[in-house]
Amino acid sequence: MSNWREERTKANALALAQLTKRLPDAFPQAVLTHAKARAYVPSTLRVAVDSYWRAHPLRAERLARVLAARSGAPAGWQWHVGDSEAGLPATFRTPPAPYRERAHQRGPGFCCVCGQPVYRFGWHADLWDAGINKNATWHSACVTAWQFWNVPSGQTKLLRRLQGRRCRETNRRLLRTAEVDHLVPLFQVWRQHRDRTWPELLGYWGLPNLQVINREVHAAKCANEARDRRSARLAATEHA
């Protein structure tokens, strides 16, 4: 154990020296502080940036939606699914991303999630007055946001803590089996809200539309939603 700690201390000292040597005049202080506090200090600035956003997924998710609002949807864009050859999502459960579609891609130097320029180290602002990074097509923050939107259950512990470990539906203590749920179901977003602006749509995959509830409550909620969907289908069939 003692040898392992000594080896880690030496490795961290070497990594920190490499990180400091490559440090430009301008660099996000929060990222540097996070890198130095890690159990294993990253040896490159890009890895330090990626590590920072992975450690702050909710911050990354909010930023991605802000950047998307800054870009707005391309002219004439509408949310569609199914055509994988055109870069469309296979299902409505995948967040709409117009700049990932072939018809609207902005090319190297622009983020395929939010559509904004990408700068050094995958950062979202040009702190170095160096122009866009034409070797990148993702912001580091948007990578984390995209993962969060697609698999919010990966952040269950964080969401539990935000809710004070209380079930959002019953206000009872959250059990170990508690699950992440969308307040407005994604099928309902697809059916009733698909005409909303693109940045608004992203909010249905983000923190504003997420909650953690106990498994039995989640099961009951899903059953009620399934009954409502069946009733809607039957009503539509009768009126047809």
Word description of this protein:
The chain has 240 residues and is mainly alpha-helical. It is 46% helix and 3% strand. Among the domains are: 1-55, no CATH class; 152-239, no CATH class. The chain has helices at residues 2-21, 29-37, 45-55, 57-71, 140-150, 156-162, 186-192, 198-202, 215-239; strands at 179-182, 210-213. The protein has a two-stranded antiparallel sheet. The termini are far apart. The model has no long low-confidence stretch (mean pLDDT 93).
Please indicate the percent range of residues in DSSP E strands (runs of 2 or more): under 5%
Spell the H/E element sequence.
HHHHHHEHHEH
Estimated structural class: mainly alpha
Low-confidence stretches: none
- What's the tally of helices? 9
Shape assignment: flat
Summarize the SSE layout with pairings.
Blueprint: H1 2-21, H2 29-37, H3 45-55, H4 57-71, H5 140-150, H6 156-162, E1 179-182, H7 186-192, H8 198-202, E2 210-213, H9 215-239
Antiparallel strand pairs: 1-2
Helix pairs in contact: 2-3, 4-5
What keywords describe this structure?
flat; 9 helices; two-stranded antiparallel ribbon; mainly alpha; 2 strands; 240 residues
